[in-house]
Design goal:
310 residues, alpha/beta, Arc Repressor Mutant, subunit A, D-Maltodextrin-Binding Protein, domain 2, 5-stranded mixed beta sheet, 4-stranded mixed beta sheet, 13 strands
Length: 310
């Protein structure tokens, strides 16, 4: 790899027609350039330059070597420039793994807005139930609800969701409305496990109740749908059932109580991200977390001297 650096220095010496000019162009001392080119000639086994006190001239081998090296150096420079464009001008295919219910019910309009902002980006989404492997599979980012179990991944928290209790008016009319958390033990509770427990919080108070129900589910959308069909209570973030709340199909139960906040995170395999992935994560964080949006807006104002950039 050191030879590649020496090749680049050799090209600069030839282009500058001397060590002094190359030293000014590269910031590498004249003596260091001379030593590095000498080491390069020794490793090749051929003299590349005829040195005089005033100028340098290419040998026959030097002319052949210069043409080859110049192409290599130009290709390397072009590769760096293209990567720089990828960082500043988002484009390409963004491959993301998304939780299906959260993506369909909540992220879809945000993704549509992002797509309009960045027409150079196309998208491939995996909305399956499986957890994709960001290390071995070609995904740029995974959005996950809950803490990541893989400590090797880079985790960025986008927002937190607070689960609350909801039920349909029809179910409450049939079964009665609970007034205290302990009363949930005699209700049909729709959740990922049955029987199970729900831990609820109200200020500094916490209580854990044993829940049971006829349905054992591992899908948020199905639990939500059954709740609208008068089958029981659910403990979910408002974002997951916003449409049903607006239409009156569900309403809040025990409004003083809520579950533990759940993080929504963006997971990546590395911190070195292309612009398409960086912008996607930043966009979601701004839209999902009002505090993050305020922070980003403040940084933007500072960077432009408190002038509008649009």
């Amino acid at each position: 790899m050191e030879h590649l650096n020496d090749m680049a220095l050799f090209v600069e010496v030839v282009k500058a027609k001397g060590f002094r000019g190359a030293a000014e162009a590269t910031g590498v001392p004249n003596s260091t350039l001379s030593r590095r080119i000498g080491a390069l000639e020794k490793s090749i086994g051929l003299r590349l330059l005829h040195r005089t006190t005033r100028r340098i001239e290419l040998t026959e081998a030097g002319r052949v070597y210069f043409e080859r090296c110049k192409r290599i150096v130009d290709e390397a420079r072009l590769a760096h420039e293209q990567l720089g464009e990828m960082l500043t001008q988002p484009g390409g295919v963004l491959r993301a793994s998304l939780p299906v219910d959260f993506a369909v019910g909540y992220l879809a309009p945000l993704i549509a807005e992002f797509a309009r902002l960045y027409p150079g980006i196309s998208f491939e989404f995996d909305l399956g139930a499986r957890r994709v492997d960001l290390v071995s599979e070609p995904f740029d980012v995974a959005i996950r609800i809950g803490q990541s179990e893989n400590s090797q991944l880079i985790t960025r928290t986008l927002t937190t969701l607070t689960p609350c209790l909801y039920a349909s008016p029809g179910y409450l009319q049939q079964a009665g409305e609970p007034r205290q958390p302990i009363e949930l033990e005699r209700h049909q509770c729709l959740g990922p496990a049955s029987p199970g427990t729900w831990t609820l919080h109200h200020g500094k108070k916490s209580v854990t109740v044993h829940t049971s129900g006829r349905f054992k589910l591992n899908n948020v959308g199905m639990a939500r749908r059954l709740a609208t069909l008068d089958m029981g209570l659910i403990l979910m973030p408002q974002a997951a059932i916003a449409d049903d709340l607006a239409s009156g199909k569900l309403r809040r139960v025990l409004p003083e109580w809520h579950g533990a906040p759940i993080p929504v995170c963006a997971l990546t395999e590395t911190r070195l991200l292309p612009a398409k992935t960086q912008r996607f994560i930043e966009f979601l964080r701004e839209r999902l977390d009002p505090a993050a949006a305020t922070e980003v807006a403040s940084r933007t104002r500072q960077s432009v001297g408190f002038r509008r950039d649009r």
